[in-house]
Amino acid sequence: MIETKNLTKRFGSLTAVDNLTLTVNAGEVFGFLGPNGAGKTTTVRMLCCLISKTSGEARIADYDVGKEADALKIRKLIGLVPDSVGLYDDLSAYDNLDFYGKLYRCTETQRKENIQRFLTMLGLWEKRDLMAGTFSKGMKQKLAIARALIHEPELLFMDEPTANLDPESSKTVRDFILELKKEKRTIFLNTHNLDEAQRICDRIGILSTKLIATGTPQELEKALSSGGGTRKTVVLLQEQATDAILAGVRKLPGVGGVTTEGDKLEVALSDPDNQNAAVIEAIVKAGGHIQSVTIVSASLEDVYLKLVKEGGGRGP
Amino acid sequence: MRLSQSWIIAAKDFKTFRRKKSIVYLVAFIPLFVAILIPTVIGYVGRMKTPAELVVLLPAFLFFYVILGAYLSTPIASYTIAGEKLEKSLEPLLATPTTDSEILFGKGMAAFFPPLAAVLGGSALFMLLMDLTTKGKLGYYYFPDWNSAIVILLLLPLALLMSVQVNVIMSSRVTDVRAGQQLGALTVVPFIGVYVAGELDLINLGVTSNLVIIAGALVVVDVLLFFVSTATFRREEILTRWK
Fold it and tell me: What is this model's ipTM?
């Protein structure tokens, strides 16, 4: 559905997006993670034909992004939920959607049906005649999502749809995205929220001007674990770790690092499933008494923070 | 360019303006107020004027409606662009399958037609009341004549067009509607200059050739402004440079 090759955008001397190469498949929810200023919004704007690319290629469906003749066709098959909702406060919720339905050339019947369907799904049907300006942030965000869906686009771009929402509204929006996922819609989701990305997205791309990594959340965690030894065994002792215990564990093969805090011992291992027995044996031999042993995997947050900090390329 | 897309945008803006009471009152009330005020004043002052003096005064007063047209499109034009900028509603609008020209034309229509209708209505009432007021002195109905047709049907639309385009350009440079309106209102300055020149007998606004020269100058200005406003209203400019 989306294919980019060395897509680059520069604003004067500033490179906002640098040689972005990625593929998003039809029916997939693709999460785009990155810190502020990473180029997420710029990428979405380029793909939505709102701003030009400086170099590289991008295709949406069978259309070329950047080709004037294809721009209208691309905009017809996409829906955009921008980072600012941008509703008309002096129009009712219904009129806001009806206006966009007309611009997308939906028939009157289609408009009526879709407005009712999406407003009902988002719990706003009863409030359809109220001015959008009277809505809460969460309601406005939901209305902006309904607006992006009014013409039933094949591809939906969402730019931080849960930013600045309270937990309840965020959950409603996330649940709605999951509903859309069930309908096999292709969704390109810009987000800061790692938990959201992990729960919703089939695949994730981590961007920091350059694309640092792509893969499923599990693949990204695994890739980091195998390369950086961030899977670790946490051993809870009955007493504080002694020097003898630390020395005994450190000399084991495959141990990446050992840290201790009170009665807790953290051992970074490349393969904890197979190495834990040796760790336990070493602790017992050194006179330690073990309460519990837990394997802790790298979370997506660990992966994200490590990759963004390093700024280096990695991918499964 | 698909006019239907532009019309959808203009129709949405008309709907929005109807809810902006200040704009509705301003656009509807001022032309009517002027239409009643000037004939009333002339009714008193006209008694002291000779028919020859009246014939010079009347076209100058009609030119006042050109100034009104340029002035009244300002609040609408600045709202339609700067207002969208303020509500941040331009990005989703630009993401629809609509070209920049269609959006600009739609916005232009929204700012053009309401003041045009109000000023046409006001000027028709003005001419009617003025005829009733001056018939006794002149012995004939002064309005309508060819010159009034040129002023109302040619100069007025050209002045409105100029005002709309200036407001588009101004709106791209400001961060709120009021600042846009204040800057856009400067459009009336050249028209006030012409009006004052008419009052000072520096230019006779009752002479057809003078009106045609003013119309020609406006056409040139409007064409130049067209290029500037279309260059200003480009989606990349709007999303990356407009503050």
Answer: 0.84
